[in-house]
């Protein structure tokens, strides 16, 4: 029976999909279960020859280059896509879909080439332009938007589920939140099965409580990227931004919510929490906001109607604990024990300038062969001391879950 790439990757030990039902083969080494803190398997890293190659700017494509560098330095994604190449340059079992081929080509050039000249990701740009026309020209684009479009497009190419007929969610409103979250996740997985989904997709719980009758409405939605608020102040911590994201919000006036019990719109309290954390979580700092009447020193202008928050956001390099931001019962076993949810930084997309459409993007990525950080500015690459990262310009961050 012909296997898909996903099952092939799991059965060969290239990737341990969290939702896979394929039995894991016995291993002569525990190396697979001893991933480096930042998502790389030690024995696999020794097979790599590159990692510090730049990407050529093809005309305002720094937003794409910065995102691609971060994704190419995501060990779980890079290893499974380079796990077993055949004569076509693609992993065994994979049909040569356009974006999969283009990204695999970029990964091969980055990790298995001794070339020092910058690589031109022209094929990736061409494929993305066909699926998302806003990336067709040579105008500056938003890096976070490109990242989400890219991951979703790659997922759709690799999605094993081809029959996407409508299915009802088997949801019991009287069940506990964690049980309902699993039901919603099972429904999502019935339509979405790919290695990209397994690595990057998490689940958000939206809980709305009616202030009149106390009725609770819950929705559980998948997410590729977590967009969190940034305060208008000189500095703060990433944890403070996360706490602001999950803080209860009063819905009143035009934002009132329709209560199913009261059968009318009422004032409510809404709270967002994490009901499922992915292996790699993408955190997007919402630095661009509508400009108010006053401009503080932490802001810079972005056109006439927006401002960029230049707040210094102090983010951890390791042991970023997501448990305080989880919904009740999330990631708990049958005994009520919550498993560790510690994450380590693997990549940062930086934005410089006052405008998201006219600024410049770079990337800071962890390079596993040298066990150090590098700064990628299009074709220019240099070593970077982690403590010198620009926390005022960090825009998108990728954290990999620690497995040990």
Automatic annotation (TrEMBL):
What Pfam families does the record point to?
UCH (PF00443)
Q: Which reaction does it catalyse?
A: Thiol-dependent hydrolysis of ester, thioester, amide, peptide and isopeptide bonds formed by the C-terminal Gly of ubiquitin (a 76-residue protein attached to proteins as an intracellular targeting signal)
EC number of this enzyme: 3.4.19.12
Q: Which UniProt keywords apply?
A: Hydrolase, Protease, Thiol protease, Ubl conjugation pathway
Q: Which CDD domains match?
A: Peptidase_C19R
A GO BP term here is:
protein deubiquitination
USP domain spans which residues? Answer: 53-402
User: What is a single molecular function from GO for this protein?
Assistant: cysteine-type deubiquitinase activity
| Taxonomy, superkingdom | Eukaryota
Q: Which family does it belong to?
A: Belongs to the peptidase C19 family.
Q: What is this protein called?
A: Ubiquitin carboxyl-terminal hydrolase
Q: What organism is the protein native to? A: Hondaea fermentalgiana
């Amino acid at each position: 029976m012909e296997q898909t790439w996903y099952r092939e990757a799991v059965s060969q030990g290239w990737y341990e999909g969290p939702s896979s039902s394929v039995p894991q083969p016995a291993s002569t080494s525990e190396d697979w279960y001893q991933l480096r803190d930042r998502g790389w398997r030690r024995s696999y890293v020794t097979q790599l020859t590159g990692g510090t190659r730049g990407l050529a700017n093809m005309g305002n494509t720094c937003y794409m280059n910065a995102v691609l560098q971060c994704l190419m330095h995501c060990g779980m994604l890079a290893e499974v896509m380079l796990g077993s190449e055949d004569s076509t340059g693609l992993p065994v079992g994979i049909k040569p879909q356009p974006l999969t081929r283009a990204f695999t080509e970029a990964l091969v050039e980055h990790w298995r080439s001794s070339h020092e000249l910058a690589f031109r990701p022209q094929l990736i740009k061409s494929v993305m332009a066909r699926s998302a026309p806003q990336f067709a020209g040579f105008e500056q684009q938003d890096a976070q938007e490109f990242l989400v479009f890219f991951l979703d497009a790659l997922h759709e190419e690799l999605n094993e589920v081809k029959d996407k007929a409508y299915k009802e969610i088997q949801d019991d409103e009287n069940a506990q939140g964690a049980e309902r979250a699993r039901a919603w996740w099972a429904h999502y997985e019935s339509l979405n099965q790919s290695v990209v989904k397994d690595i990057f997709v998490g689940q958000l719980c939206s809980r709305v409580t009616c202030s009149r009758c106390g009725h609770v409405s819950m929705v559980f939605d998948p997410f590729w990227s977590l967009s969190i608020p940034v305060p208008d102040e000189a500095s703060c911590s990433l944890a403070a931004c996360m706490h602001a994201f999950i803080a209860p919000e009063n819905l009143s006036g035009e934002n009132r919510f329709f209560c199913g019990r009261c059968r009318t719109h009422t004032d409510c309290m809404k709270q967002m929490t994490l009901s499922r954390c992915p292996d790699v979580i993408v955190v997007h700092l919402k630095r661009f906001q509508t400009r108010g009447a006053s401009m503080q020193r932490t802001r810079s202008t972005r056109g006439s109607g927006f401002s960029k928050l230049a707040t210094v956001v102090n983010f951890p390099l390791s042991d970023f604990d997501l448990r305080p931001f989880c919904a009740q019962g999330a990631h708990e076993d049958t005994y009520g024990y919550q498993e560790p949810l510690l994450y380590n930084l693997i990549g940062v997309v930086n934005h410089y300038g006052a405008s998201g459409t006219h600024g410049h993007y770079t990337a800071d990525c962890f390079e596993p062969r040298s066990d150090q950080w590098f700064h990628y500015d299009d074709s220019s690459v240099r070593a970077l001391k982690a403590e010198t990262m620009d926390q005022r310009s960090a825009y998108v961050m990728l954290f990999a879950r620690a497995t040990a």
